[in-house]
Amino acid sequence: MNQDYVGEDYIVIKALENGVTIIGLTRGQDTKFHHTEKLDKGEVMIVQFTAHTSAVKIRGSAEIMHRFGTTMGEGTKKQ
Ligand code: TRP
Fold first, then answer.
1. Mutation test of ligand 1: which of 33, 50, 54 has the most ligand atoms closer than 8 Å to its C-beta?
2. What residues does each domain of the chain span?
3. Degrees (nearest 5) of the Cα angle 38, 40, 6?
C-alpha cells in the first residue's frame, strides 16, 4: 500500500447560482484556507483531495456530487 495515499477522491461541484465559492483547506495539523475559487451559474468544477487538501468548504447554491451521493448546497442570496 502506497504510504502517501490520502484517499484522493474526486468531487464534482455544479454552481446553481452566480458566485458559488469553493475553498480548499490544508491537510495536517493546521486547517487553513489555501485556495478559493468562484463559480458562476452553470459552471462545473471537478476537484480532488490531495496531499495538500483534506477538506473543502462550499458556499452557495450548488449540486455537489461525491462518493456518498449528491448533496445540495443552499444559496444564501434571495432568488
Ligand atoms: N487539517 C485537517 C486535517 O488534515 C483538516 C480536516 C480534515 C478537518 N478533516 C477535518 C478539520 C475534520 C476539522 C474536522 O485533518
1. 54
2. 1-60
3. 45
